[in-house]
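A.,

Following up on our hallway conversation. Structure tokens first:
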């Protein structure tokens, strides 16, 4: 079985899969008593369809990955709400070329999120410690009209979250 290590989320590490949504390091565009604002931290293209928010309730479970999906026409935004979550991703390869050794797993802090580029393989995020939720933004109809799912129950991957604090980046190792 392949074991993936949970990685800390940063712009460079996540760049092959999309964009990180978190507090920018640049100066705020505006601020006031108790608030700071950065406008347009990420731009999302559309094809004439409206954007729709989804709500994802998450319970802590064993972090085993035995499926993935992708959307060729829509980016997907996943934002962690009250607690940290783990998001797994792989490059936008065609389904018949999807390689399990190219998956990576990132810890997304509460209040932060990611924008997955179209075609990036992913699945439902994992709650890391306690029940939590995530908000998902997709173009309308994506789940119905633009979702390809692959399943690999005979070769699942597991995620080791105990190494996240070490600052080490992902490695895949056969156990």
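Then the amino acids I'd put at each of the 175 positions:
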């Amino acid at each position: 079985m392949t074991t993936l290590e949970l990685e800390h989320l940063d712009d460079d590490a996540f760049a092959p899969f999309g964009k990180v949504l978190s507090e920018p390091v640049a100066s705020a565009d505006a601020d006031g008593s108790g608030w700071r604002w950065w406008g347009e931290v990420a731009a999302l293209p559309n094809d004439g369809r409206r954007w729709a928010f989804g709500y994802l309730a998450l319970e802590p479970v064993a972090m085993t990955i035995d499926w993935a999906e992708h959307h060729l026409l829509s980016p997907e935004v996943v934002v962690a709400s009250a607690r940290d979550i783990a998001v797994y991703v792989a490059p936008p390869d065609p389904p018949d070329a999807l390689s399990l050794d190219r998956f990576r797993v990132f810890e997304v802090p509460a209040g932060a999120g990611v924008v997955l580029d179209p075609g990036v393989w992913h699945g439902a995020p994992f709650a890391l410690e306690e029940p939590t939720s995530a908000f998902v933004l997709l173009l309308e109809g994506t789940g119905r009209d633009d979702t390809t799912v692959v399943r690999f129950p005979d070769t699942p991957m597991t995620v080791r979250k105990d190494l996240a604090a070490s600052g080490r980046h992902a490695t895949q190792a056969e156990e």
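Confidence is low (pLDDT under 50) at residues 163-175. Curious whether your intuition agrees with the design.

B.
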